[in-house]
Design goal:
single chain; 385 residues; alpha/beta; 9-stranded mixed β-sheet; 8 helices; 21 strands; elongated
Amino acid sequence: MGADSKQDAVIIGGGFYGTAIAVYLAKQRGLKRIVLVEREPALLTRASYNNQARVHNGYHYPRSFTTAYRSRVNLPRFVRDWPLAVKQDFTKLYAIARRNSKVTAKQFERFCREVGAEIRPASLAMRSLFDAHLIEDVFVVDEYAFDATELAKWAEKELREVAVEIRVNTLVTGISRDGDTALCVSTESVDGRQERILSNYVFNCSYSGLNQFSGDFPGTQVALKHEITEIALLQVPSSLDGLGLTVMDGPFFSTMPFPARGLHSLSHVRYTPHLHWNDDATIDPYQKLAQYNRISRVDRMIRDVARYMPAICDAKYVESLFEVKTVLVKSEGDDGRPILFEKHQELPGCYSILGGKIDNIYDALEKLDAERFIKSATNVPKMEQ
């Protein structure tokens, strides 16, 4: 086992949240010795990459005003802070189904006015993409996509500039107390090398792995739910190129540009989730995904989408991205996506943070703004009160 090292902070998880928080702690809060631990060979290769790549602007959450409003506030900040990663050169349409939708077109318009999200009537050419018998109305909205590979480049550059130590191919196995003054993070690399890292603070940004630690880690108080999901990647026909389309609100679908591949993603509320289970510390979500038989449901997705939007039949299927998606159980009713931000009283200095959307990063950083941190790793002193 490697010798103990002393750090100001350990970040568990090299996705967008983990990397952004590491940069924030170094640049904004003055922490000098930071280690970021990632189980994969590279940063931002799991949930940060395997998703719809949507930068939300509120439209997707007519049943959760708070989530919608926070997206409206956060989107312009995200565009400002990560301009190279944001794709804006496409037209985004939201269509309201006549049947089985949980909102009507009038309700959707009123909701958009209430949260300050701009909508405009779609042109006849755009409306002609949809079956008028099944679609009540179509709106042009302001919503964008992000390129996870550009975010990864940003993360690598920023982490290098602020001297954050990155350890990839390394799994955090436990979090414990080390006497009265420090936290101890146990790690194991893919080559079997084990190490203990002593630190003032631990930021658990491991997404689906939030509760997969031994030692004194108590687990999150908020209940979590995991899903194995499938995002299909398509080459869309010329009639759909330069467009993103969402039919809502209920058992419907979205197709969005996927900038990292120059393709479009296709997700379907009924067919994207393959299976789900409530969080259990004895079940490793990533192992469950690794063992899952990844049989695509893209044929069923396209068959259903074609009823509303016939042009999808001319799309060419390329591949599917399978990933574990983790949400808060309490948000299942309204489809809201608040962040999880927990301070573990049993382990002072240990935080668990989960974001439901990429733009939620600002909600997490605002929570951290309210925390007080000491800045020296010398002797690993107690957290300020």
